[in-house]
Amino acid sequence: MFFVFMFIWAFAIFAGITMVWLLAWAIRKGEFQNLRDGARMIFDDTEPIGTVTDCFPGESGKPAKVGAK
Amino acid sequence: MTTNLNQADEIRARIEADSSSRIVVSFYWGTALIWLTIATLAGLISSAKLHSPGFLGDIEWLTFGRIRPVHWDAAIYGFGGLAASGTLLWLQARLCQVQLPFKHWLIAGGTIFNLGMLCGVVSVLAGYSTGVETLEFPVWAMTMLVIPYVIIVVANFTMYARKKTKHTYVSQWYLMAVTVWFPVLVLSAEACINFGAVDGVAQAIANWWYGHNVVGLFATPAGIAAAYYLIPKVIGKPIHSYHLSLLGFWTNAIFYNWAGTHHLTGGPLPAWTITIGVVGSMMMFIPVITIGINHHMTMVGSFHLLRTSPTLRFAVMGSMMYTVSSFQGSLEALRSHQEVTHFTHYTIGHVHLGMYGFFAPLMFAMMYYAMPRLMRQEWSSARLIRIHFWCTLIGTALYGAAMCFAGVKQGLMMNDPAIPFLKIVSFTIPFLWLRTLAGLILLAGTVAFLINFGRMLMRYKVTFADPTLFTTERNWDALLASGKEEKPA
Questions:
Q1: Cβ-based neighbours of B480, under 8 Å, separated by 6 or more
Q2: What is the DSSP annotation of B152-214?
Q3: pTM, whole model, 2 decimals?
Q4: Is the CB of residue A5 less than 8 Å away from at least one CB of chain B?
Q5: Contact B368/A54, CB-based, under 8 Å?
Q6: What tens digit of pLDDT does each residue of B323-339 get?
Q7: ipTM exceeding 0.90?
Q8: Which of B6, B48, B130, B185 has the fewest beta carbons closer than 10 A?
Q9: Inter-chain Cβ pairs, chain A and chain B, closer than 8 A
């Protein structure tokens, strides 16, 4: 039982320290700077801001040449 | 730009990320949907037993005490675990612009996870439940659910270490956190309860610390990660406030962990343990409000796209229900609130608004968006998508409204000693029928999606190739036509 207790405490301390370290690492690395560009990282030249990338099938695109299999 | 790649490399990276995750992610999501169907069916049987106790009453495997845990465990682990893992792997590969590593290991991990689920469900149905809520599976079956997470954690951080982008997107924070939090939660709770490190009421504290966090630190981050990617990506507009999104993540990480003990209000615990849970729940208003504001303000001006985008419909429904169910959940923690709603159907309504109203639609949205890109094929039926959406929306709304109203009324009646208990039970029966009806509607929607998903995997009825606005494919075709590039496999 002693080892189970030690395991739980070690695990909790490890998890806590990891989170604090991760936050400090992110601040040092500049993850919280230039957030405007960060928000735009999911867009690129081929799917830029202003491009809608989803719609119901068969309701805005052209029919394919491929038929039913 | 926040990437080190040029235009052609960006397209190549996206195609390669999608291609590399095709088999693994399809496997995880396909099996997740099978578990969702099983979970919904088990929930339906449980629900019917509440208003018609004789229903399947002579089959011991399907008694309420066995089928109800199967419903919840199949939903949270089978559907939640596999859907969130598939989301994590696909989204992380895309956002890091790298290929998915360790594919064979991940397939093996997914197979072990599914076998663990099967063993756990059969064990509970056969009467070998541990009797601990949300940890009903025998320890060896739970171990089979945790082992694959080692592979997922390694794959996740390997992709992050290899990333070609400069910035860590907000969804990635959530995805990396969820891979770490889930094994910590399970191992700690198992050590405390099923390995007997603590006993008595301390087990109850550990149980509800786990039961609450498995939703909030496992399912919720995966859902929010999906929303933060899908909503801006589909409508082509960056998040309203990226500052708020990061504040939301870190406050969620700090406060959620403390909220679990509010489930034990009124129990034989020291008052301070409950108070910590109440304070943690109140502090959760910070991330909930930031996330709610962000999702809503991002959508302002683009609500008309709900008519045309299936992904957006599910993503917006999930995001709105996140705000509703989280506000409801925080308020439920208050002692004055619990005096009425504790031990009533209200809590059941809340849980379903969270799982079926918030988490599941966001996972569906992710699947609707990603699967055509993974398979390079369009969904075979728009009608089935519409049936799925309306069944999910109507089923969840009916369930939530019926259970929450019945729960408040039930609680008020129970607080009146002049009302006989049987009269209170009789009062709830019509609402329990409504609950079964809602479950039937949800099951119909799930089956519609399962059919569409199965058709996609079997490449059945490929009528359209373009309409999901495959900008990646179109631009790649343009590059190919220019003769400058060669398409990757």
A1: B486, B487
A2: HHHHHHHHHHT--BSS--HHHHHHHHHHHHHHHHHHHHHHHTTT-SS-THHHHHHHHHHHHHH
A3: 0.92
A4: yes
A5: yes
A6: 999 999 999 999 999 99
A7: no
A8: B6
A9: 173
